[in-house]
Write a structure and sequence with these properties.
By secondary structure, this protein is mostly beta strands. Helix content is 0%, strand content 52%. The strands form two sheets. Strands 2, 4, 5, 6, 9, 10 and 11 form a seven-stranded mixed sheet that branches. A four-stranded antiparallel sheet has the order 1-3-8-7, with no helix packed on it. The chain is globular.
């Protein structure tokens, strides 16, 4: 089992930045893939960014060039650096992890472990 706890959300104005963190605990040595997802009110949860055990990353098109996903294996922590934030980025952001090999990194159905989420609100 893996437990995930997110932090770093908050309220910012458009153009601002935030850094989200996700600390993993439990059977972290088995984790193969970690990702960030978000869900806005009335919308489905969508994949934002993911990073594999080897450091390869993948991003949803709307955040490319603005968001950066990274991890510190020594600290069992996943990060999401978000720059040039826009109101449409407002959502609950979730951290996710998976042990098995995954083909489609930004599909929530492939992830087993989830955090409780941290809210990001961007005002215009």
């Amino acid at each position: 089992q893996v437990q995930l706890v997110e932090s770093g959300g908050g309220s910012v104005q458009a153009g601002g930045s935030l850094r989200l963190s996700c600390v993993a605990s439990g059977s972290t040595s088995n984790i193969n893939l970690m990702g960030w997802f978000r869900q806005a009110p009335g919308k489905e949860r969508e994949g934002v960014a993911a990073i594999g055990s080897g450091g390869k990353t993948e991003y949803e098109d709307s955040v490319k060039g603005r968001f950066t996903v990274s991890k510190d294996d020594a600290k069992n922590t996943l990060y999401l650096e978000m720059n040039s934030l826009q109101p449409e980025d407002s959502a609950m952001y979730y951290c996710a992890a998976e042990d098995a090999a995954v083909v489609w990194w930004l599909l929530e159905v492939y992830f087993t472990y989830w955090g409780q989420g941290t809210q990001v609100t961007v005002s215009s």
